[in-house]
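Following up on my earlier thread - several people asked me to post the actual chain instead of describing it. Fair enough. Here it is, all 235 residues.
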Amino acid sequence: MSKIHFIGGEKGGVGKSVLARLLAQYHIDKNLPFAAFDTDRSHGALLRFYADYSTPITLEEVESTDRLMESALETERNVLVDLAAQTSAPLHRWIDQADLMALASEEGVPVVFWHVIDDGADGIALLDGLLDRYGDTATYVVVRNYGRGRDFSAYDTSEARARAEELGVHQIDLPELHAGSMRKIDHGNASLWAAAHSRESGLGLMDRQRVRVWIKRAYQQLDRLYDELLAPANV
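Reply from S.P.:
Thanks for posting it. Predicted structure:
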């Protein structure tokens, strides 16, 4: 079956697009069927770094957003949706108006929300709201991004995490990548594969090595979710 993966967190600067790029590269490296959609019309990361695999959509336009479900039904694959900051209102409106959760259930298309958080309070409150809205009709992955924070004790002791555990929410940690290495990736418009392996990416030997180590550690986290959330249906 196909799955629709919404990669968000609503708050800007928490690393949503880094995770979206990582998931796209993971699918490429593992030879997993996928389609990617970018909702950021100004500087979309998937469109910039994975243009050959990505399609722009506008969440404020119903017909544009409808392509997500249509893509999931065309063939069995993971549909990755990189949600720009402050896009929750049009997304939830589209889901509500079409009763997408019921339709997805009828069509056998699980909906997965990847909620990326830093070590601030906003991400906890936003997770609470997401769980309130969709409850057990969706699957969730909380991603603690150590590239955007180091002390997640507030989340770890929060009521939101307790609720998440009751719902069987998955949790993974996104390791930190040296900030200078990430800047070079971005300035060089390099895919993660190019940043790890190609001199033409503009990264030196040690930067490429740091990226390879970071990808390996991040993939170990994604591998924990492979069987349930990422593997093709026929595996």
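The mean pLDDT is 94. That should answer part of your original question.
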